[in-house]
Amino acid sequence: MTPQRLGILLALLGMLLFALNDTLGKWLVATYSVGQVILLRSLSALAILALMLWRNRIPLLPIHRPGLQLVRVTASTAEVMCFYFAVAVLPLADVLTYWLAAPIYVAALSPWALGESVGPWRWGAILLGFLGVLVALRPGGGIAPAVAVSLAGSLAYATMVLSARALRATPDTALVFFQTLGAALAGLVAAPFAWVPTPPQDLGLLALLGIVAMGGHLAIARSLKLADAATITPIQYTLLFWGILFGWMVFGDMPDGAMLAGAAIIVASGLVIWFRETRARRRALRM
């Protein structure tokens, strides 16, 4: 098997693991508070990350660009908390639809945050993406609190992506360790206010939640080393397929017509942005 094909398979596996993580998380927040879920999930992930850092001799200090690292950790902590708050109320596919709008926000903010140029085609795709978000929001009925939390979470995720682009010098494992540590500290503060006694089997599921998420991160990180980002990026939209499938199988949820139409527009917009970025990158390499 060629490295390119193996990278594609690992990316597909990573998206599947993320979808399983999201489904299990939605199941658990029906019983446990968001703070408790995030705390126990993060502790299991930190144990694995600490072992990886030690085995690969990856230093955490000195911290590269600490101010920007703090912005990223804050955004990633807000993102994971918003996700679990939203998924406790909304269907899984609905929440994932709002999250998949993040690349649109990244493209819209990149001229100011990263100094990247955005041409008319990409601006058109960005506007199309915002239209998709409006369609998914079903304008006229008001915005429910859980939907507002979803939008805030997707914006936090976009901030995390933008900051990660500016922190390329920091090893991936260290970046994930810092964001997981931030989530653990937030969970440590929030969990005592609504702590529920955890039987051993649920404690195992909460630990598994962190392990599955770590597996997804590792699969995606490895896929990007085996295949180019232009090949891997569109695979992220398979997450929506898994979200619809698992949401229907496990929770009996099925997106309505407006949500499906909005999701289709958002995916189309993201693919146009990806196509234009890929062309611009290839053009720059030829010069």
Mean pLDDT: 83
Give, in order, the helices and strands: HHHHHHHHHHHH
Count every beta strand, where a strand is a DSSP E run of 2 or more residues. Answer: 0
Integer tally of domains: 1
Low-confidence stretches: none
Biggest β-sheet strands, sense, barrel: none
Structural class: mainly alpha
CA radius of gyration is 19 Å
In short:
The protein is built from 12 helices and no strands.
What is the secondary structure topology, with strand pairs?
Blueprint: H1 3-28, H2 34-55, H3 66-87, H4 92-99, H5 102-113, H6 120-137, H7 145-165, H8 172-190, H9 200-226, H10 229-232, H11 238-251, H12 257-286
Helix pairs in contact: 1-9, 1-11, 2-8, 2-9, 3-7, 3-8, 4-11, 5-6, 5-7, 6-12
Describe this structure in words.
It is a single chain. The chain is mainly α and 287 residues long. It has one domain. 78% of the residues lie in helices and 0% in strands. The protein contains twelve helices and no strands. It has helices at 3-28, 34-55, 66-87, 92-99, 102-113, 120-137, 145-165, 172-190, 200-226, 229-232, 238-251, 257-286. The protein is globular.
What would the keywords be for this entry?
287 residues; mainly alpha; 12 helices; 78% helix
